[in-house]
Design a protein that fits this description.
The structure is a single chain. By secondary structure, the protein is of the alpha+beta class. The chain has three helices and two strands. 21% of the residues lie in helices and 19% in strands. The protein has two domains: 39 residues, no CATH class; 28 residues, no CATH class.
């Protein structure tokens, strides 16, 4: 159902790493039965490290183009800000 909705909007979808943490990782405790915010969602696993490394999180925006270096590695993105 979610995939169909994304397809209808022309949005890309894929499986994500949103499981329960089972081991201590990057200073975050594992789930021990209802531990608050123990899920392995992007806001808890990827974004904090990325922001510390210089990434900028833009909300209410869509990516128009990914910029790459000569080796083809992503270096940034051009975005289109959208209304709330």
């Amino acid at each position: 159902m979610l995939a169909k909705a994304f397809d209808k909007l022309g949005w890309h979808w894929w499986a994500s790493d949103t499981a329960i943490s089972s081991v201590r990782h990057h200073g975050k405790d594992p789930d021990v039965g209802g531990y608050l915010r123990s899920f392995a969602s992007a806001d808890l696993t990827y974004w904090p490290s990325a922001i510390k490394g210089g990434a900028r999180l833009e909300t209410y925006a869509r990516v128009r183009e990914i910029t790459v270096d000569e080796a083809g590695n992503a270096t940034g993105a051009y975005i289109i800000k959208t209304a709330k």
